[in-house]
C-alpha cells in the first residue's frame, strides 16, 4: 500500500479518470467537490457512486466501483466536502470495495485515508494507493505583509459553498481569453484537484495562514494577475479565521463578492443569517486595507443556479442598480459578466 500526500508546489499527477463518490449526503452544497470536477474537469470523470437514493447527483452515470474499474476508472475520488472533513462509518464498506475492485482512493478531507479502519490493510493487500490532497507544504513562513509585485484578485463570500471557486475559475478563464497573463491559485481540495497544485488553506495552522497565502501568490510581473480562490466567509462563525488569513496574505487589489440569493441562513450552523452584500463589501475593505490600502470591490457574483433565467436576469439587473456595481452569474455569462471582468481589470 502506498500512502501519498500531495502538498502544494507538487504537481503529482492524480490517478484519473475518477469515479466520483457522493457518499450519503443529501445537501448538494456538501458535494461541491464532485460538482466542481464534473463542471471544470469532465474529461477526468467517468461516473458517480452514491449510497442509496440521496437526491444528489452531478449528472454522470451511476456505477459501482467494479463497474467503474471495468469502464476505465483508475480511482474513486471522494467528492464530498462535509463539515469537519470526516469519513463516516457508513462509507467504509464502499471505500474498501473500491480498493478490492482495483481503484486507488483520492481524498481531500481532513481525515487521513490510512486512519480509516480496514482501508490501509485492504490497500496493501490489493496494491492500491491512498492519496491525501489536503496536505499543506512544509515550512510555511509567517506572513510579513510586504507588498508584492503583480496584480491579485480574491473571491470572497457571504457564506461557504456558494460559488467562490467557480467565480475564480470563470474569471481566470475570461482573463486568459483576453490575452492577459493570469494564474488560478487554488486554496481548497477541489481547486487543487482541478489545477494540479495549490495550498489547502483550511489545513494550515492559523499562525501561518497569511504566510501560506503569500507563498501561494508570490511576486510576479506587474501585468500578471493571480486569481485566488476564496475560502469560508468573514461572517461564518465556523470558518471566518481562514477567510481573514487568506485576505491578509493575498493582499488583493480587487475582490468579488459571491452570494447565493436563495440562501438566507449560514450553512451548517443554526441561528446565523447571511449578511447583506453591502456589509461584506464594507468589512472586506476595512480588514483588507491592513495589507493593501488600495483594495476595492469590482462587483458581485450571484449563484442563480436555482432560479429560472428570467428571474435570474431581473435579479442581476436590480442588484446592479441597487449596489452601483457590476453584478453577474459567471456560469450564465453574457454582457453582465463581461462588465464584471472589465471592472476587475479597470
TrEMBL record:
InterPro entries: DgcN-like (IPR011669), DgcN-like_C (IPR035086), DgcN-like_N (IPR035402), P-loop_NTPase (IPR027417)
Domain D-glutamate N-acetyltransferase-like N-terminal: 57-136
Pfam hit, one: DUF1611
Domain D-glutamate N-acetyltransferase-like C-terminal residue range list: 142-336
PANTHER family tied to this protein: DUF1611 DOMAIN-CONTAINING PROTEIN, GLL3100 PROTEIN
Protein name: DUF1611 domain-containing protein
Amino acid at each position: 500500500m502506498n500512502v501519498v500526500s500531495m502538498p502544494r508546489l507538487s504537481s503529482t499527477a492524480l490517478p484519473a479518470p475518477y469515479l466520483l463518490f457522493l457518499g450519503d449526503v443529501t445537501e448538494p452544497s456538501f458535494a461541491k467537490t464532485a460538482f466542481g470536477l464534473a463542471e471544470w474537469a469532465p474529461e477526468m470523470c467517468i461516473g458517480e457512486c452514491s449510497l442509496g437514493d440521496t437526491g444528489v447527483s452531478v449528472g454522470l452515470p451511476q456505477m459501482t466501483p467494479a463497474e467503474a474499474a471495468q469502464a476505465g476508472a483508475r480511482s474513486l475520488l471522494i467528492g464530498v466536502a462535509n463539515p469537519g472533513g470526516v469519513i463516516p462509518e457508513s462509507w467504509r464498506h464502499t471505500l474498501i470495495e473500491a480498493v478490492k475492485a482495483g481503484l486507488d482512493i483520492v481524498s481531500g478531507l481532513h481525515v487521513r485515508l490510512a486512519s480509516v479502519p480496514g482501508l490501509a490493510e485492504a490497500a496493501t493487500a490489493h496494491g492500491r494507493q491512498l492519496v491525501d490532497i489536503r496536505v499543506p507544504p512544509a515550512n510555511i513562513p509567517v506572513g510579513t505583509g510586504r507588498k508584492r509585485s503583480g496584480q491579485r484578485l480574491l473571491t470572497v463570500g457571504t457564506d461557504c459553498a456558494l460559488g467562490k471557486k467557480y467565480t475564480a475559475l470563470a474569471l481566470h478563464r475570461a482573463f486568459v481569453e483576453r490575452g492577459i497573463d493570469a494564474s488560478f491559485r487554488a486554496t481548497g481540495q477541489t481547486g487543487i484537484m482541478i489545477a494540479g497544485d495549490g495550498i489547502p488553506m483550511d489545513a494550515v495552522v492559523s499562525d501561518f495562514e497569511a504566510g501560506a497565502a503569500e507563498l501561494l501568490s508570490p511576486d510576479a510581473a506587474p501585468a500578471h494577475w493571480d486569481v485566488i480562490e476564496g475560502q469560508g466567509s468573514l461572517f461564518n462563525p465556523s470558518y471566518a479565521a481562514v477567510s481573514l488569513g487568506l485576505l491578509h496574505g493575498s493582499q488583493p487589489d480587487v475582490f468579488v463578492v459571491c452570494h447565493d440569493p436563495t440562501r438566507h441562513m449560514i450553512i451548517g450552523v443554526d441561528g446565523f443569517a447571511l449578511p447583506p452584500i453591502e456589509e461584506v463589501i464594507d468589512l472586506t475593505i476595512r480588514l483588507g486595507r491592513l495589507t493593501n490600502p488600495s483594495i476595492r470591490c469590482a462587483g458581485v457574483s450571484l449563484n442563480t443556479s436555482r432560479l429560472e433565467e428570467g428571474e435570474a436576469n431581473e435579479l442581476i439587473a436590480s442588484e446592479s442598480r441597487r449596489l452601483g456595481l457590476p453584478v453577474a452569474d459567471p456560469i450564465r455569462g453574457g454582457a453582465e459578466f463581461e462588465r464584471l471582468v472589465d471592472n476587475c481589470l479597470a
